[in-house]
Amino acid sequence: MRVLEYGKENKKTLLFLPCTAEPEWAFADSATLLDYHVIQIVYDGHGETGEDFVSVEKTADDVIEWLKQHGIERLDAAYGCSLGGACLIRLLAIGR
Question: What is the DSSP string of the chain?
Answer without folding.
Answer: -EEEEE-TT-SSEEEEE--TT--TTTTHHHHHHSSSEEEEEE-TTSTT--S----HHHHHHHHHHHHHHTT----SEEEE-THHHHHHHHHHHTT-
